[in-house]
Amino acid sequence: MKEFDIIKNYFLSRSYQRKDVQLGIGDDCALTTVPEGQQLVTTTDTLAESVHFPKGTSGRAVAHKALSVNLSDLAAMGAEPAWISLSLSIPEYDEAWLRDFSLCLQELTDYYSIQLIGGDTVQGPLSITITAQGFVPQGQALMRSKAKPGDWIYVTGTLGDAGLGLELLQTEKAAEPMHRNYLINRLNFPSPRLMVGTTLRRLATTCIDLSDGLKSDVQHILFASQTGAVINVEQLPLSEAMLATVGKDEGIRYALTAGDDYELLFTVSEEQKGSLEVALANCNVSATCIGRINGVQEKLELQRGDKPYQLPETGFQHFS
Amino acid sequence: MKEFDIIKNYFLSRSYQRKDVQLGIGDDCALTTVPEGQQLVTTTDTLAESVHFPKGTSGRAVAHKALSVNLSDLAAMGAEPAWISLSLSIPEYDEAWLRDFSLCLQELTDYYSIQLIGGDTVQGPLSITITAQGFVPQGQALMRSKAKPGDWIYVTGTLGDAGLGLELLQTEKAAEPMHRNYLINRLNFPSPRLMVGTTLRRLATTCIDLSDGLKSDVQHILFASQTGAVINVEQLPLSEAMLATVGKDEGIRYALTAGDDYELLFTVSEEQKGSLEVALANCNVSATCIGRINGVQEKLELQRGDKPYQLPETGFQHFS
């Protein structure tokens, strides 16, 4: 299986073709052009078996997740995706797994109009590194550092589902089959919020994607912007499956600390709040206001209603 | 060691800063701009321990090699390097190894004026994936597909040294200390031929870097250009260390089949041959004419002097 030729056999013929790619897979490098007036946006994420996803995860789920976590980073900058490079480490030549993986990657790259422009394969423990690139109009990228006291804090979708899904996979915890299915799908098939990201470009002051858990990720904004925040945990958006399986109190803990949500957290000024809510109505993704930025440097204050909220000590196992 | 913070602790403060990088490490993505009139050139290579380098290779050598094999691909397109993303999988937190690795990476990125713009770290078997990007003026990239019958075939430097170096490391084969040192350094510290690459832009018809071995790599050009080639093995450039250690006959076999040379192989038309030799005189790297392209599709003919040359069957172990 030296050098596999896996990229060639499984990915080359199937990749979506873009006009801004002058030379794709098959030479020493790819050649591409960035449209005038656009900045290039680049992110790299590695997913390793048993670290970022449980052993036994299907090729389809691994492909979906490996691409989605990268696209989620692009979404958090307000970028639209363009190209990816793939480095695939696989322990053995497993035809069925590779077919699964490559077909899913092909479907997704077609769906998002992304071209696979290069890659490498190596024999080793299962691990996938993707470098994803996209564009954002000059000066319109969403960064972490521009939050101002008074800005409102929003999150997309519902929180904590992936963390509970992982718990269901790895413990005896029970859930109704329909809910179980939903929660495990939220773990394995995250949806990068690309359309929300581009919609936020001229409206939000900061944006970040939630990968480690809300409580931990919001700190990146507080640190970069040198601000504090108050979050009202009563407002945290919880799915029906979450509420039915563990109830609200436990749900809040998942929402605050469980990873792998790949929802966006963003801030918006008082003046833009109305325009933002109108713009997001077209995105088909809910966005919930959960708190507000203040001037207390790097301090995150949690409230439930009008009382301080203390997060119970017990943590959740999660991949991230 | 969750998420390590290795990128931050070891790489962030030390990275070379470029003007075309508007946002480096520390947000969801990096933001960069490609100069007007330039194409973006992208390559990804993964090096895994025991596959691409022997167990026990120093952090310095691993960093050097991981970066160099990527830069060698950029050189083969005639590109100048700009940015890299790094994904690092390490089995445990080894302070000394990481210091070695990151210091070498810093020295090299400084030397080549490259900025590290992103990355990821994960706990796992030692493996390094780098995505390297650079620029080439619109339409001037060197591809594999433009060789024409009558073009001359050149290689830079000397061939087979890295393969012999690996043999010295892994077997009882003896060499004089000075030669041994030279050959092992050729394995661990390849020199990407970036200046040769940019010099070749308007002169060469094709270019490729030698990673799997001359005999195997030249086929990529024959396949892409739909041509054949005659190579005179008598002309293959062999180092003094190679000749002193194994002699000419054995040296030719290393030069043809051993991998990891990271020299450039390129073709040039009869008309440009003179200009090319003048231009290369400024590059401080030797280039040797070893054969000629012909019209016999995808067939590589080896000669020694005016007789056909038959490569002995015994192969060499090599990493690539």
UniProtKB/TrEMBL annotation, chains A, B:
* The PurM-like N-terminal domain, residue ranges: 26-136
Uppermost EC category: transferase
Which positions does UniProt annotate for ATP binding? Answer: 119-120, 144, 211
Query: Which residue numbers delimit the PurM-like C-terminal domain?
Result: 148-296
Instruction: Cite the binding residues for substrate.
Output: 52, 260, 316
Q: Which EC numbers does the record give? A: 2.7.4.16
Give the function comment from the record. Catalyzes the ATP-dependent phosphorylation of thiamine-monophosphate (TMP) to form thiamine-pyrophosphate (TPP), the active form of vitamin B1.
**Protein known as:** Thiamine-monophosphate kinase
**Source species of the chain:** Planctobacterium marinum
